């Protein structure tokens, strides 16, 4: 299993779920833009699940977290295919150079993982901007604005 999509498909198949069933059961939080608090939730579609499984689109960070929670796997395994190295840094000596090197390696690995997640989020954003859903939403918003401006001018 080399890809996130393959791991999602594996977990879905283990639970004997159709893409439609997974899409209806998966809950994505919707946060208030100002406060960051969860104000509601939204569903996804079987087409989105299909695109993720076929590696056509990378999931958003929220989607990846929801999938990991749903399947009860670590986000690290879902994204990278392996669990994070669980080193116990607190037991290492901070006085020796060896301890500092291990601590640095641990931090470097964390930064690499964070950068990878950032690239996944960026890719998902670009996929969304290029999607039919975004195009339709933009069209509807512009039409509403145009109709409102037209009424005000009358």
Keyword list:
single chain; 154 residues; mainly alpha; two-stranded antiparallel ribbon; 7 helices; globular
Report on this structure.
With 154 residues, this protein is mainly alpha-helical. Helices cover 64% and strands 6% of the residues. The chain has a two-stranded antiparallel sheet. Strand 1 and strand 2 (38-42) form a beta hairpin. The model is unreliable at 86-96 (pLDDT under 50).
In the sheet with the most strands, the strands line up as: 1-2
Topology as a string of helices (H) and strands (E): HHEEHHHHH
Helix content: 55-70%
Q: Quick one: how many beta strands?
A: 2
| Overall 3D form | globular
Terminal residue distance: 61 Å
State the secondary-structure class: mainly alpha
Flag low-confidence runs.
Answer: 86-96
Largest sheet: 2 strands, antiparallel
Please count the helical segments: 7
How confident is the prediction overall: mean pLDDT?
80
Beta strand %: 5-15%
Radius of gyration of CA atoms, rounded to a whole number: 21 Å
